[in-house]
Design goal:
Keywords: Glycosidase, Hydrolase. This is Beta-N-acetylhexosaminidase. Pfam families: Glyco_hydro_3 (PF00933). By secondary structure, the chain is α/β, with parallel strands linked by helices. Helix content is 39%, strand content 13%. It has helices spanning 3-11, 24-33, 48-62, 89-95, 98-115, 145-161, 192-197, 201-206, 233-243, 258-261, 265-276, 287-303, 308-324, 334-351, 387-398, 439-444, 474-484, and strands at residues 13-16, 37-40, 67-70, 72-74, 77-78, 119-120, 165-166, 168-171, 212-215, 249-251, 281-282, 353-355, 366-372, 403-409, 426-431, 449-452, 466-468. A 6-stranded parallel sheet has the order 7-6-3-2-1-11. A 6-stranded mixed sheet has the order 12-17-16-15-13-14, with helices on one face. Helix 9 (233-243) links the parallel strand 9 and strand 10. The N and C termini lie far apart (57 Å).
Length: 499
């Protein structure tokens, strides 16, 4: 086995690290693995000083020419809590202003560049044509492919102008699924022509602009009867490379997701993905499986299932990405940072959408807020909105105009709506999870106002007027409070049908 093959196999893997500090043992493991691509999660970025030190330590261990990736989409999918929270894609879809989308993309990149992150796994190009989709919803710009493409193009252009690469996802489209690929393998069984005209449309339009693209762990039987997209030569090579002419870096979605790991394993999945046309396999969570993935690539070359030339091609694409978008920490001017925070706040305000003609409570009223105590993570955003955080923000904004009574519940099935006091108080249900409501809640819950603070499709579940924010960032909650107080109107327009 040649040293070159060892090097190429290690460079074909992007992996994660345990926490905000890089210990000697972990640094030695990464050096032995031979990777130069690291994916960061919220556990790695508790504050600015920690992430700056971590990236500096990674550069010291692996060399300055490294790829530091992170999901910084906006909305609920923001790995950093210390940077201003950008509006979600669907919030931008509700505003429908390409200039704003470009400015937001640039501002997101400025925050990342200040840390040394040089690859952002955003934006989402999946289209919202399935209200039951458990994982995309507000992460998409909407259901109309032309509008979504226009906004995504602007967002990408702004992002790239600040010297940080982006990575559109999830090719060839994750919008029309009922299954979360973190948990199982979704299937989208649609005719080729329908996929071409709808799901594939944004990817085809933006293939020449984006330097990175992430595959979907989804099976499309009309495109490939055997393999999901991540492992499919028909999809990654023939469709993406040959028909769409894509020349950038193709990375897999996380290979630790059950759609792949429980069927093929991260190691064999990595070998198949690289053979299919991927340039990086995103191998996460388990160090032994990272090592096994490297060994699987080497074994696949020896067995003739994967060529060394294919690994060289993958390495060359990653080389070009790193050269064009180097990982270099730079200053984030306080005045610019404040301007970016105000830009995001303005976007959240403009996105606020009324559904079903909601009426404001009268001044001096007591608002009865019904909210889940702790919002469970959806596995993508990592953290939801707790009742404490929501109440604290609303009290700070509304205390001069309203009183607030809070009714908390741990699980929805514990709340008996019929037991709420029938005293005429203005009752507000706040939806703080991505999950939809079930038949019991649909039949019984009758609030005066439904605040859909995460999944906009939840607004269709309750027989009540709704205010939709497309996210629960502080600025989004402030916009909700401003609407309740009569300071602003809800001027956003739903970018997707709710049913």
């Amino acid at each position: 086995m040649s040293d070159t093959l060892q090097q190429l196999a290690g460079q074909a893997l992007m992996v994660d690290v345990a926490g905000p500090r890089l210990g000697e043992d972990e640094a030695a493991f990464l050096q032995q693995l031979g990777t130069r691509a690291i994916c960061l999660f919220r556990r790695n970025v508790p504050d600015e000083a920690s992430i700056r030190r971590l990236i500096a330590d990674l550069q010291c261990a692996l060399g300055e020419d490294i790829l530091i990736g992170m999901d910084q989409e906006g909305g609920a999918v923001m790995r950093t809590l210390f940077l201003p929270t950008a509006p979600s894609a669907m919030a931008l879809g509700a505003v429908d202003d390409a200039e704003l989308a470009e400015q937001v993309g640039a501002a997101v990149a400025r925050g990342l560049a200040s840390l040394g992150v040089n690859w952002n796994f955003a934006p989402v190009l999946d289209l919202n044509n399935n209200p039951a989709n458990p994982v995309i919803s507000e992460r998409s710009f909407g259901e109309d492919p032309l509008k979504a493409t226009r906004l995504a193009r602007a967002w990408i252009s702004g992002h790239l102008s600040e010297g940080v690469a982006c990575c559109v996802k999830h090719f060839p489209g994750h919008g029309d699924t009922h299954t979360d690929s973190h948990l199982d393998l979704p299937v989208v069984d649609k005719p080729k022509a329908e996929l071409r005209d709808y799901e594939l449309s944004p990817f085809a339009a933006l293939a020449s602009l984006t330097p990175g693209m992430m595959s979907a762990h989804i099976r499309f039987p009309t495109l490939d009867a055997d393999w999901p997209a991540t492992l499919s030569p028909a999809i990654l090579q023939q469709l993406l490379r040959e028909q769409l002419g894509y020349q950038g870096v193709m990375i897999t979605d996380g290979m630790n997701m059950k759609a792949i790991r429980e069927r093929w394993g991260q190691a064999q999945g990595s070998a198949q993905a690289l053979a299919a046309g991927a340039d990086l396999s995103l191998v996460l969570q388990f160090q032994d499986e990272m090592t096994e993935s490297k060994q699987a690539l080497i074994a696949a070359v020896a067995a003739g299932r994967l060529s060394e030339t294919r690994l060289q091609e993958a390495a060359a694409r990653v080389d070009a990405l790193i050269r064009r978008y180097p990982s270099r920490q730079r200053d984030y001017d306080p005045a610019q940072r404040a301007a970016d925070a105000e830009l995001f706040a303005d976007a959240w305000r403009r996105a606020l959408t009324a559904h079903g003609q909601p009426q404001r409570p009268p001044a001096g009223a007591t608002l009865r807020l019904v909210v889940q105590d702790q919002a469970p993570s959806d596995g993508v955003s990592e953290a939801g909105l707790s009742a404490d955080a929501l109440v604290t923000r609303l009290i700070a904004q509304l205390s001069r105009r309203f009183s607030l009574e809070v009714i908390r519940y741990q699980r929805r099935e514990e709340l008996d709506w019929r037991r709420l006091p029938q005293d005429g108080r203005y009752t507000v249900v706040a939806s703080t999870t991505r999950g939809r409501y079930g038949a019991r809640e649909r039949a019984e819950w009758r609030p005066d106002l439904h605040l859909a603070l995460w999944n906009p499709y939840a607004a269709a579940d309750l027989d009540a007027p709704a205010l939709i924010s497309y996210g629960f960032a502080d600025a989004a909650l402030d916009a909700v409070a401003q609407w309740l107080s009569g300071e602003i109107e809800a001027t956003g327009t739903l970018p997707a049908r709710l049913q």
